[in-house]
Amino acid sequence: MRGNELCQSDRAHVLAAYIYRGTIENQRAHPQAVAMAGSRLPLITDAQWLEISEWPVTKSGRIDRRAKHCTTFHSEMKAHKAMIDEWSKTRAAVRK
């Protein structure tokens, strides 16, 4: 389930638990964690991150708190997609 579809308490849980996300708000709160994550993508807002990230949920529709990872679809963000496309072209050229 996408983060923006989670109930308020589940959203609060993922924002507190997933500190290695590349967001503006998280950069302020956990600068070391964001640096350790090592993403070269531009920072986005927590709201944008929730929109493009998915978590497994239980049958009742609540986040499965046993989950250790989420899936983030960076290519859905215009700025991220442009960078990802450029990296892909560069890698393809290097392989030739």
Give the tally of β-strands: 2
Which sheet architecture does the biggest sheet show?
2 strands, antiparallel
**How many whole angstroms does the radius of gyration measure?**
15 Å
Sheet/helix structural class: mainly alpha
Sheet-strand content, in percent, reads under 5%
What is the N-to-C order of secondary-structure elements (H for helix, E for strand)? HHHHEEH
Mean pLDDT: 88
Q: How many DSSP H or I helices?
A: 5
Low-confidence segments, ≥5 residues, pLDDT <50?
Answer: none
**Overall shape:** globular
Question: What separation lies between the terminal Cα atoms?
Answer: 39 Å
Strand order of the largest sheet: 1-2
The percent of residues in helical segments reads 40-55%
Essential attributes:
mainly alpha, 50% helix, globular, two-stranded antiparallel sheet
3D architecture notes:
With 96 residues, the protein is mostly helical. Helix content is 50%, strand content 4%. The protein has 5 helices and 2 strands. Strands 1-2 form a two-stranded antiparallel sheet. The longest helix has 18 residues, at 78-95. The chain is globular, with a radius of gyration of 15 Å. The mean pLDDT is 88.
